[in-house]
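In response to the reviewer comment on reproducibility (Comment 2.3), we provide here a single inverse folding case reported in full, input and output, so that an independent group could reproduce the run without further information from us. The structure tokens appear first.
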């Protein structure tokens, strides 16, 4: 299938950096898709220092009409530049399928199934599926997202919940070429997965197919900046609030109400992280506190009465 054809149906977008141990699994899962339409595979290597680029070139040579590598000579991520933007703009497909180089697909019918659904449902903006969550640290057994069945996600669903993994995403490509301010705020906070979902659900529903389609390697690189940022809950929550405030500029009246509620929940969590537990007893946070479980409220009261408990808790139960 010639990637130069203008009728390319899907562009598989894969960003990678130092994924020598993983990228072959991803590429194999891409090239082995069983489809009845033309597609392309775009792989962006962010100046890897291991053998990742060599493996990509190997697949370019084996599949010259299918795989296209885009190689950086300097690491863009360290300069605050996103590789995914470059690949989104280079994509020729009607749809974009996203999967990072340390994850891979488990279903060779994935693309066909999702494209068939999107072609039959023009009101749907994207299609996703279930994912195996593999803990590279072996700290927990593999699990999945365990949705109850096929369903549709809206902005209301995804603002406060992580309902699917981006390695299963197939989305109408024009939605990723029009990138609003909150998308860039998400990039700064290493949260572009969330802000992409916001962008998509402003345009339409995300359809979820309850079928395992991918494997996500959790903590494949424990030294990465995204892992370090994820451990800094205060920084992450503040960044989330900033991005949500930007999102509110793009929403209608009903959606704006949902966004404001999401901001309030983040601010509530921020009180918890900053040891400002007494403030949870004041409105508007008191209403949220009342909705928490009894055990949560008891723990919160203990932290208020005995503030020295908090550092001990952090020491005994550090973030994973």
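Designed residues, in position order:
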């Amino acid at each position: 299938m010639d990637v130069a054809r203008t009728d390319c149906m899907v562009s598989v977008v894969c960003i990678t950096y130092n994924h020598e141990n993983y990228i072959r699994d991803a590429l194999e899962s891409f090239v082995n898709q069983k489809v009845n339409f033309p597609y392309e595979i775009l792989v962006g290597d962010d100046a890897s220092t291991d053998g990742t680029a060599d493996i990509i070139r190997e697949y370019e040579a084996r599949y010259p009409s299918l795989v296209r590598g885009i190689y950086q000579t300097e690491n863009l991520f360290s300069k605050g530049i996103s590789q995914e933007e470059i690949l989104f703009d280079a994509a020729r497909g009607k749809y974009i399928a996203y999967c990072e180089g340390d994850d891979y697909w488990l279903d060779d019918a994935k693309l066909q199934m999702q494209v068939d659904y999107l072609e039959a449902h023009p009101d749907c903006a994207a299609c996703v599926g279930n994912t195996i969550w593999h803990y590279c640290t072996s700290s927990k057994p593999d699990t999945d997202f365990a949705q109850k069945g096929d369903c549709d996600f809206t902005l209301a669903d995804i603002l406060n919940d992580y309902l699917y993994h981006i390695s299963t995403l197939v989305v109408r490509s024009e939605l990723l070429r029009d990138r609003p301010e909150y998308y860039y705020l998400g990039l700064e906070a290493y949260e572009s997965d969330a802000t992409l979902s916001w962008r998509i659900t402003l345009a339409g529903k995300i359809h979820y197919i309850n079928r395992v389609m991918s494997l996500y390697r959790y903590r494949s690189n424990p030294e990465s900046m995204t892992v370090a940022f994820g451990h800094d809950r205060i920084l992450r929550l503040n960044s989330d609030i900033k991005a949500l405030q930007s999102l509110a500029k793009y929403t209608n009246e009903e959606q704006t109400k949902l966004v404001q509620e999401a901001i309030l929940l983040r601010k509530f969590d921020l009180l918890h992280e900053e040891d400002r537990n007494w403030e949870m007893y004041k409105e508007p946070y008191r209403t949220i506190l009342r909705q928490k479980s009894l055990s949560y409220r008891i723990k919160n009261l203990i932290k208020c009465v005995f503030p020295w408990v908090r550092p001990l808790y952090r020491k005994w139960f550090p973030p994973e």
